[in-house]
TrEMBL record:
Record-level GO cellular component terms: cytoplasm; nucleotide-activated protein kinase complex; nucleus
Skewed-composition ranges (Low complexity): 20-34
Protein name, per record: CBS domain-containing protein
UniProt keyword terms in alphabetical order: CBS domain, Repeat
InterPro entries: AMPK_gamma/SDS23_families (IPR050511), CBS_dom (IPR000644), CBS_dom_sf (IPR046342)
An example molecular function term from Gene Ontology annotations: protein kinase regulator activity
SUPFAM superfamilies: CBS-domain pair (SSF54631)
Stretches for region Disordered: 1-37
Organism classification: Eukaryota, Fungi, Dikarya, Ascomycota, Pezizomycotina
Stretches with biased composition (Polar residues): 1-12
Gene3D superfamilies in the cross-refs: CBS-domain (3.10.580.10)
Protein family membership: Belongs to the 5'-AMP-activated protein kinase gamma subunit family.
Amino acid sequence: MGNPSSRESNNAPADEPQRAPNASAPATSSALPSYIPPLSRGHELPFVQPSSYLRPKFRSRTTPVPTTPMSPIDEEQLQGLKGLRNFLRVRTSYDVLPLSFRLIILDNDLLIKKSLDILIQNGIVSAPLWDSQQSRFAGLLTATDYINLIQYYCQFPEHIDDVEKFRLSSLRDIEKAIGVLPLETVSVHPSRPLYEACSRMLKSRARRIPLVDIDHETERETVVSVITQYRILKFIAVNTEQHTMLLKQTVREIGLGTYSNLATAKMTDSVLEVINLMVVHNISAVPIVDKNNVVLNVFEAVDVIPCIKGGAYDELKSTVGEALTKRPEDFQGIYTCQEDDRLDSIFVTLRQSRVHRLVVIDDNWHLKGIISLSDILKYVLFTGVTSDEAELSAPP
């Protein structure tokens, strides 16, 4: 169900060219992300890091004490951030969409089991939901919903027969039954500023947001598409190189990411154990490390989908290593950085690759932290915001 359009939805399987209204094509960088060959067949796949040539050569590893007046690097950093925020205020959510798209919308009355088959067949990991009874947008189906279903299956094994009968309209009841906090259902009008869409996503803890319009003839809602944090940051990286090149402070200096209480797992842990970690810590990915805390891979929420294909819940007892072999052949690998990498180099990686998070490591590949796309977006939107900027960002 959906509206014919000449753009391609965000649930399309492959990257498409970004729209760059009134912007020239980005300069080609000669510094491509470095790919490290697979360590072995199957689950240990390539790792990618931001270009090291952008890393400062003589920067202190200690956090500098703020001084007055600001250093030139600090001033450039704030200037770059202000430029990005101004860009987000003048661009709309519609601008982020590619030139062509398809949109798959699932009816709320569809069996959850059937919805899984549709996602797998179309190579997508999420889809908008539609309430045909009320003719309105009803939320968003994501990998987290399948994880919640698995938790329900584990907590109430006596109701295993009911699991096969659940419909998409039952997702909220499943959340209540297992005691998880549901994500706020948010949407944004496609003509609203992109800054507003970013703010709503961060406030609701969502990683994607549907664009919902009103049909002027029927006065009913219509879902235009879905945009993700990844697509927004890609759009920024492609079209604002003059601003991102000013972001020369390092990951360490700006405190980007999470570095304490990190949930990790081993290759020999079961998929169910990792799913439980995701639910308990409210996270969408778990780094896979060896006994020396060396990063081997990352298990993501979307990796759950192939594990339960066809209702094969018994496969959840298999190991993480076995589950990761089910990834598609075009999986691009794990993206990493170090604390001395600068934010401008991270935007280079975002511009050139399909990045969903960065694993922070040291020189010996020991796990140090995780940088999510939410961390990057939050830093861009709210760091160093002046009172005048805050007024500009306030909704009408």
